[in-house]
Design brief:
Blueprint (H helix, E strand, L loop, with lengths): L1 E6 L2 E6 L10 H12 L9 E6 L10 H5 L4 H17 L3 E6 L2 E3 L1 H8 L2 E4 L4 E3 L13 H9 L1 H10 L2 E3 H7 L4 E2 L3 H9 L3 H12 L4 H18 L1 H8 L2
Parallel strand pairs: 2-3, 3-4, 4-6, 5-7, 6-9
Antiparallel strand pairs: 1-2, 7-8
Helix pairs in contact: 1-3, 3-4, 4-5, 5-6, 9-10
Pfam families: ECH_1
Protein name: Enoyl-CoA hydratase
Family: Belongs to the enoyl-CoA hydratase/isomerase family.
Length: 235
């Protein structure tokens, strides 16, 4: 279900269950977490592209699995751990949304560093129609990404956004024909700088602590790249 391959500076993690629009079962969530936390996989490259196989990104949780749950809270926590592994990966994670993303699929996308959609992408949180809501960290991340007003509208209405509407609300940052092109663009940067930028922008500590860490990280990168900085200055 979770397939990985490395191509140069980009690792591609594919949700590979196209016959079910890449809907996720409990074991799939564990495999996805392992793909991002390094368990059972190769070391993280500078950039990882998360994508879905076939004509969908991810339909979210497999409803057959949800209906059969003995411990719904444990299932939610499993999804939360998978999303956290994506967010906390040392690799910069680009989520390429091509086709439908629903429920848990949107929540996984929210945990990525960069979300891009193809023109045919659609995103929705249909949980309210089932008497549920996204519980893989979506209630935490959605208002951070969209703002509280748009997040409430999106989740409470269950409406589906096309790629342009998702762009307007900030749910995605670009609409592109090929998400791999964005992964390649980011991978052209220096790997240590990419990791430092991600770490700093993901830091949720108080401002003063963040600024101290920012200065230290800048000094470390400056020392590592002093020769290249000097060479460019002399051009």
């Amino acid at each position: 279900m979770i397939r990985t391959r490395t191509d140069g500076d980009v690792r591609v993690v594919t949700l590979d269950r196209p016959e079910a629009r890449n809907a996720l079962r409990p074991d799939d969530l564990t495999a996805l977490r392992e793909a991002f936390d390094g368990t059972g996989s190769e070391s993280n490259p500078p950039v990882t592209l998360l994508r879905g196989a076939g004509d969908a990104f991810c339909a979210g949780a497999d409803l057959d699995a949800v209906a059969a749950l003995d411990d719904p809270a444990a299932f939610a926590r499993r999804g939360q751990r998978a999303a956290a592994a994506i967010e906390e990966s040392p690799s910069v994670v680009v989520c390429g949304i091509d086709g439908p993303a629903r429920g848990g699929g949107v929540e996984l996308a929210l945990s990525a560093d960069v979300r891009v959609a193809t023109p045919g992408a659609t995103l929705g949180e249909p949980g309210v129609s089932l008497g549920l809501f996204g519980a893989w960290g979506g209630t935490v991340r959605l208002p951070r990404v969209m703002g509280e007003g748009d997040a409430l509208d999106f989740a409470l209405s269950g409406r589906v956004l096309d790629a342009e509407a998702a762009l307007r609300t900030g749910l995605v940052s670009r609409v592109v024909d090929d998400p791999r092109s964005v992964a390649n663009e980011i991978a052209a940067g220096e790997g240590d700088a990419l990791a430092a930028i991600k770490c700093r922008l993901r830091d949720r500590r108080d401002d003063g602590t963040q600024e101290d860490a920012e200065a230290a990280a800048f000094a470390e990168l400056h020392e590592a790249h002093a020769a290249e900085i000097a060479r460019r200055r002399e051009r």
